[in-house]
Amino acid sequence: MSFTVRAITLDLDDTLWPFAPIGARVDQVLHEWLLEHSPATAAMYPVAAMRELRERAFRDNLHLRHDMSALRRLTLHEALEGSGAPLDLLEPAYEVFYAARNQVQCYPDALDALARIAARVPVAALSNGNADLERIGLMHHFAFQLGAREHGAAKPEAGIFHAACARLGCGHGEVLHVGDHAEMDVAGAARAGLRSCWINRTGARWEREDLRPDLQFDTLAALADWLDAHLPPTPPSDPTRA
Asked: What is the CATH number of the domain that holds 78?
């Protein structure tokens, strides 16, 4: 399949790096911090209980589903208040969480592939999560980062895709959205009029019959190969302008 790709929007969690190790580390780091700074909270909310509290906060506050940071603060507020801890611990606890959340380990192919892709077309990060590419050290590969919190709505709503296209200066059909999630990424992008690429690292079967991704690969490196094969050659740089 061949079509015009003038820009790419790229999901982050479970596309550029796996999220599960981050989530597990965040839970443990936060618990260890609470053991030191608020033992009563750590005792009332060990790792499993804190996870249950967070999941309940997410279920009970669907109006905040686009704002992972607000939901995390809400969880910490309830845990501190419920255990009788001072609420001035909330922001220090959040910062401990957020520092750990931004310690990522990319998939083995991802960094080289990202550099190759970004050398071909502008790439914008488009995520429902709250990773910070500046903190992570990858922002130089991206034209910009647009998060659900900043936009005010999350994927798969069309508005966040359209906002990214507008900032990229491209028509919807000229942008390829790349991500791992069948609904949030592939279906959301398709309904918004973008091209879609499913990064299927697990070998899962595509289950939907109403639509299919325009492209499907098991690595970002394979997408970089496709771009090399289907896009015009990148013009060489002019050494006189270096």
From this structure: 1.20.120.1600
